[in-house]
Amino acid sequence: MSGLTGSSISSSIPSGSLVNRASKRYYSVYILMVLMLVYLTSQTDRFVLGLTSYHVSRDLRIGHLTCFYNESNEGTQCGNNNCSDYQTNRDKCLLDEDCSWDYSATSVYYQILAGPAFIVTFAVSSLLTGLLLSVYTLKRTLLLSICALTWSVLTGLSGFCNQYWELLLTRIGLGIFQAACTPLAGSIMSDIFEEKNRGVALGFYSWGVYFGYGLAFASDFIIKSYGWRWGFWSASILSTIVSFLSLLTVREPIRRNDKNNGRLLKKKPYFKILKQVLKSYMQLPLLLLCIGAGLRQGGGLVWAYNAKAYFRKLHCDTTGVGTYLSWVPVVGGTVGVFAGGMISDGLVRRLGTRSRLIVLVTCCFLAAPFLFGTLYLSPPWAFLSLLFSYITGEMWFGVAIAVAMEMVPHEIASSGLALYLFVINIIGGNINLVLPSLQKLTSLQTAMAVLFPGSYLMAGSFFLLAGILLSCRSKRSSSSYEINEKAALIIQDDDDKTNVDLFTESEEISARRRPVTERPLIAMSFTASM
User: Which parts pass through the membrane (predicted)?
Assistant: First the structure.
C-alpha cells in the first residue's frame, strides 16, 4: 500500500476534526478500506443466495423435482450410487436408499433470482446513479451509506420470505440499492487517487468481491446449525454495522476540477453529459472491452451462484465445499487482483493505457485450464485448481475498470463507469439463464464447462481484439503526430527565414539612410544577432 500513501492523494481530502487527528494520507487509505468493506458486505448479501440455494428451493418449492444424493448417508461414496441416472425417474430414485427426490437448486426459477431479478435492476439503477453523479454534485459518502443501510434491511427481509414472489421482490430491491455502490465508490476514489495509482486502489477495492463471497460461504456453519434464514440475517447484521461505520467516519472528499469543492449542488447540462458518454462508448475498443468484460463477468456469476449445487450434485457435498470456498476465493482472488493492479500500473507507465489489456488477455487465457481442472478433478484437487485459477484469472476487474475510466473524460467518469457496469451486467448477468437448458441437452458438468471456462476464453478473445485496435490507433496517432511535428518545423523554418530576410532588408535600407560612420556598428550588431 506504499503507492497509496503519497502526497498525491492527500490533497483531495478535506480538513476536519477526524483528519486533524491523523495524517491525511492515512485517512485516504482509511476511506479506501471502508469503501472496500461496504463493497464486501454488498457481495456477501448478494451471494448468500447461492449458499442457501438448495434449502431455499426446497422450502419455497422453487423449480422442478429431480433425484439427488441423500445427504443423510454420509458414509456412502458419491460415485457408487445411481442418483444422477434417475433425474427424471421418481420411482427408481425413491427405491434407492442413497437417493432422495427433491427440488433442483439449478432450475430456471432459481436462475431468475440469481440473474435477471437482481442484475437487470442493478444495471439500470447503476446507470441512473452514474448520470445523477455527473448532472448533480451530490454528497456521495452520505448517499452510499444510506444505500448500504437499505440493502442491509432488504437482506434481512429475505430471511422472512415464505413465497417465491417475496424473495423475488427482495432481490429486485437489492439490485436497485447495491447498484449505487461501485459508481459512488469509483467517483470517490477518482478524486482521492491520481491516475498512476488508481489501478492499485481499484484492485484493493476489488478485494471486496472475494472477501464477501468467501464470507458468504463461511456462514455455512450458521446455516447448518440454525437454518438458511439465519444466513440472510447474519449477513444483514454485518452490512448494517459497516453502513453505520461509513456514515459516521467517512467525509466527502474535495472534487477534482470542481470550483465549489463539492459544497453546492450544481446542475450540469443533462443531455450534454449523455451525449458525451455515448460518444465515448462509440469507440470500438471500448465496446469490445465491455463485451469481453460482460462475458468474463457472466462466467464468474455462473460459478458463484451454482458452485454449491454443482459440488452437491457431482460430489455429494461431503467434501466441505463451504470450508474450501470460504478461503480459496479470498487467498487466490486478493493475490490475483493486487498483482494485476501493480503489473498494469507498471505497464501503463511504460507502454500506455493499451498495456492494461495485455493483463486482461493473459489472465483469461491462463485461468481457463485451471477452471477445467476445477470442474473435472475430484476434491480436494478441484479446489487446488480453483485456487490457481483465482490467482491467475482474478486480475481482471480492477484492471478493466481502470481501462474504461481512462478511455472516457474525467468530468464524466461517474457516468462512464455506470454505463460500463450497465453493459457488462446486462451481458454477464443473464448468461446463467442458459444453464438449465444446456444442462438438459448435455449434463450439469458439460454445461458448466461451456459457461464457466468457456466464457473466460471468449472474453480473452474480445480483450485481445480491443488491444490490437488500441495498438493500431496508437501507431496511427504517433505517425500523425510525427507528420504534424515535421510540418510545424518546416513552417517555423520558413517563418524564421522570412523574418531574417525582412530584417536584413529593413536594416540595409536604414543603413543607407544613416551616416557612413555608423555602418560598421550596424554590421557588428547584426552579426552578433546571428
Answer: 26-42, 108-135, 142-160, 172-193, 200-218, 230-250, 284-304, 324-345, 357-377, 383-405, 417-435, 447-470
